[in-house]
Amino acid sequence: MRMMTSQPMILSLSKDTIKVSQEQDVVFLKNRVKEVAVRIKMGLVNQTRLLTAASELVRNMMRYGGGGSCLIEVVSSGRNNGVRLTFTDKGPGIPDIASAMKDGFSTGKSLGLGLPGTKRLVNEFDIKSKVGEGTTVTIVKWANG
Amino acid sequence: MDKIPILRMGAFLLVTIQVDLYDRLALNLEADLVQMVNKTSAKGVLIDISAVSIVDSFMGRIIGNIASMSKILDAETVVVGMQPAVAITLIELGLPLKGVHTALDMEKGMNLLKSMIDTSGDDEDDDQSAYDLITE
Amino acid sequence: MSLTTSQLLQKKKKNILELWMKNQLADEGLREDLISNEDLRIQSEELVDSLVGNLTSDNFTDLDSDEWSPVIEILGGIAITRARQGFSPRETGAFVFSLKEALLAVLQGEIIDDPKKLFEESLKINRLMDNLSVVTFETFIKGREEVILRQTDEIAEISTPVIRVWDGILALPIIGTLDSARTQIVMENLLQEIVETGSSIAILDISGVPAVDSLVAQHLIKTVSATRLMGAECIISGIRPEIAQTVVHLGIDLSNIVTKSTLASALQHAFKVMRLEVKKVIVKNN
């Protein structure tokens, strides 16, 4: 028997890495993300969600990780296209990810909505961190979804 | 350093944000605006964000701060013209901006400010007529 | 008898096609309204060509082998087209099954003196065609599912009309189940319309929503909050007693939202907020 495809694989269609170390880089990064989102015909509201999520994550990376890099990818799964962003820093890392993912938690001087709020804005959210080595956050936003 | 201009119009201060805010610009605006409210004894602050396409938690916090700080200095703050996509995103982010007044556009925001100042101001009993004057 | 079955069928390709066409045209389920006889012939010929052409003595049972992919592609294409054109499963099935009959009939006519071989070869043909039928059905159903998905999208698009009931007052009647995707569209349409019309009050009427669970309530609250952030007010109307009961039983807090039982009372509230009055005109007869 021939198997029909069940769960479509996520394919990466294009890649671009941007280093972020100062405030100008942040503006540049946001523009690039926006370009990519427009290119895959993402709706305005989803674009705004993606850019806001990127804004949160890049701020975290600047503030707690001392800068880092962001990998921008166009990904595809079945009929749906999306944008995947991977933020990597070599900062001190997050000792307690579970607490960091709770609403209202913050070690810095902010509202502490960064991570859980960001998670609500995107379709997929993954965070990996090792104390003393750094943090990697990956998000995916689909064009429709 | 870039600055966002603050205009004075009678008892009100008007701010139109025409560029996407970055952190330092927002912080400067917060400081400048609070200074201006104090210096001019303004009764109201109107912030037009219709040209802003992204408001993240930091900017949201600044807007909330401006409102709270102005309130302490006896001025009301109205944010006008928020884009639908920005509103949806802020709610999902978990930032309903409690304590900040909102209006659809500058004109409606101005009316709202006037009505708030009239009702919370002196013991004038006919705020009804004041409102009518404004809407006319 | 030196010819193998595959060679034999290849030799008899023309007969198979003729026989199959005869079967199809004689069938009661022939849909001349959906496909012309010429098109049907072209389709059939393409399939027979590909099927018989790719047949070798050892690939009868192994549909995964590469030689079969063109056949499966053609068959899949036919099945998807038929699903879209509105053929029934029975009619689509008959298309493949009548080919099997044609193949078996030709085989029977050629292997006359060896019943054992006839039986064995027939079994093989049977198994092959059964597998191909399954593929056809899977593709057919997939085609149907695509049609359904597309229609769902269309329904979502057209089922959220935003109505201007008054200068500055919008109404949005929601009919049917509210899920996340639909609320998304409802919310975006409503907020966009608020900006475009400069309306300061929006009424979300949920009389046509069969049930409200905590997820739906959450979506409603989100819509109301977003409207407020933009500087407009959102009233929820059409709350039936059953829905009021569920909402309280589920412990959902709607106290920050203006709720009304009917669209009429929501409109009344909107008038009051806008300081408008509706009066009955007194007609004087003199």
TrEMBL record, chain B:
InterPro entries: Bact_StressResp_Reg, STAS_dom, STAS_dom_sf
Pfam family of the protein (one): STAS
Native source species: Mucilaginibacter myungsuensis
Domain STAS intervals: 1-113
Top-level taxon of origin: Bacteria
Protein name: STAS domain-containing protein
Alphabetized PROSITE patterns for the sequence: STAS
UniProtKB/TrEMBL annotation, chain C:
All copies of domain STAS, residue ranges: 159-270
Pfam families found in the cross-reference section: RsbRD_N, STAS
InterPro entries in the cross-refs: Bact_StressResp_Reg (IPR051932), RsbRD_N_dom (IPR025751), STAS_dom (IPR002645), STAS_dom_sf (IPR036513)
Keyword Phosphoprotein carried by entry: yes
Keyword check for Phosphoprotein: yes
Alphabetized UniProt keyword annotations: Phosphoprotein
Top-level taxon: Bacteria
PANTHER family (alphabetical): RSBT ANTAGONIST PROTEIN RSBS-RELATED, RSBT CO-ANTAGONIST PROTEIN RSBRC
Protein name: STAS domain-containing protein
